[in-house]
Design brief:
The structure holds 2 protein chains of 2 kinds. By secondary structure, chain A is mostly beta strands. Chain A has no helices and 11 strands. The chains are: A mainly beta, B mainly beta.
Chain lengths: 114, 111
């Protein structure tokens, strides 16, 4: 079974702090994604990566950056956390081969910025 | 820009009923369509994926259909059970890019 893990289930940070959210997948997937989920707005794509050291902006990249130094790990960075970044963050991965692109999701990190 | 709409937003039915969840999308140039289940406070569990060349997929009591020309997909749940209570999300993808999600249907199955 595909396993996508996220470093924390719950996180509380203060405004202005630098925040790292980590995601690891164990199935050698090429593609990795970060989404945020908010009530009434649904899931929205922040950034994605289709290879090591590669990154592409999603729909709402402002205020975020990402890092992918190893194939299995994709990090989301909030350079200076703000209260409007309080949200549920979900990481996903998908396999490039077979051209199916089914996405598998981690359990999510609920981030609260105070 | 792709837009995905799910109707109804919420649904409550007695146990044992068959039910249909609807998903529509504005851009038919999709690579695939994926249905997910989300339990409260949890991540997403993939239920079914339909590639653009396919018409339907089945898994147990679940059947998903895809009509690209009309921009619609349906998720059929047979003989519903209380354990099926969750939020169901549909999402369309352009291949290696991210998914565009609907806002979900919140389903409650009454025992």
């Amino acid at each position: 079974d595909v396993k996508v893990t996220q470093s924390s289930r719950y996180l509380v940070k203060r405004t202005g702090e630098k925040v790292f959210l980590e995601c690891v997948q164990d199935m050698d997937h090429e593609n990795m994604f970060w989404y945020r989920q908010d009530p009434g707005l649904g899931l929205r794509l922040i950034y994605f990566s289709y290879d090591v050291k590669m990154k592409e902006k999603g729909d709402i990249p402002e205020g975020y950056s990402v890092s992918r130094e190893k194939k299995e790990r994709f990090s989301l960075i909030l350079e200076s956390a703000s209260t409007n970044q309080t949200s549920m963050y979900l990481c996903a991965s998908s396999y490039l081969g077979l051209a199916v692109y089914e996405q598998y999701f981690g359990p999510g990190t609920r981030l609260t910025v105070t | 820009k792709q837009e995905v709409t799910q109707i109804p937003a919420a649904l409550s039915v007695p146990e044992g009923e068959n039910l249909v969840l609807n998903c529509s999308f504005t851009d038919s140039a999709i690579y695939n369509l994926q249905w997910f289940r989300q339990d409260p406070g949890k991540g997403l569990t993939s239920l079914l994926l339909i590639q653009s060349s396919q018409r339907e997929q089945t898994s147990g009591r679940l059947n998903a259909s895809l009509d690209k020309s009309s921009g619609r997909s349906t998720l059929y749940i047979a003989a519903s059970q209380p354990g099926d209570s969750a939020t169901y999300l549909c999402a369309t993808g352009g291949g290696a890019d991210g998914l565009t999600f609907g806002k979900g249907t919140h389903l409650i199955i009454q025992p």
